[in-house]
Structure formats: structure tokens, C-alpha cells
Amino acid sequence: MNAYARTAETYLTQRILNASPEQQAALIMEAGQLHLGRAIQALTKNDPVAAANSFLRVTEVLREATIRLNLEEGNELAQSLNKLYDFWAQELLAGSASKNIARLEAVAQGMGEIRQAWEQFHEKKNAPAQPSSFNLGNQIV
To answer: Is the pTM of this model over 0.85?
Structure first.
């Protein structure tokens, strides 16, 4: 890993550590997309070592995303995400073994959609409260 890559990785780690839980979830998905993109590039360049290293990183990302789910609460969203992450892990394994780029790109696209959903949730959660107004006769107060 070159100096630039180490610096970028350190920066991403700091962003994750200083983020809210939903920002952390989004950043984890971003990391998954990044490493999956690298794996796909390595496959197309016929570089099995780089592909294997990148797939390992994507697997670690999915493991981290799964660990962060609050399955104890029985939340339907957490259960659904757990199933989705498990499905993605299976797709990564099958897609990498068969070098099926379309299958891998579908996982990357799904990660992007989940990342965007977490980002939107964070924005809505942290949006400033809108002042309420009410009608008092002809005046809006």
C-alpha cells in the first residue's frame, strides 16, 4: 500500500470513528463499494492477488455492517439488513468464483443504495426543527 492509500485509509478510519451511528453505516457501505470496485478492476485486469485482497476487505466490511446491526431488539429493519448482507456475501463468493462482473456490480449498486438511505436518514434526523405556524384569524403566527 502506498503512502497515499495509507493516508486515505487513515482519513476514512477517522471519519468513521467521529461519525454518528447512521453516518458510520453509510461510511461502511462506502468502504464496501470502494473495495468491491477495486476487486472488479483486479478481476478485469486478471490480477487474482489484488482481487482476493479486495474481496477480503469487502467481506470484512459486510462483517462489520452485520455486527453493528441491533438484532437483539428484533427490529424488522435490522433483520432485513442482516438477510441482505448475508445475500451479498453469497453473491460475492459466487460472483468472484465465476468472475461474473454483473453480479458483483449489482452488489456494489445495492451498497450504494443502502449508503444513500443511511445518509438521508442522518440528514432527516439532524435537520433543524421547522418552526410551527398556526392561523390566528387573518394572521399566520
So the answer is: no
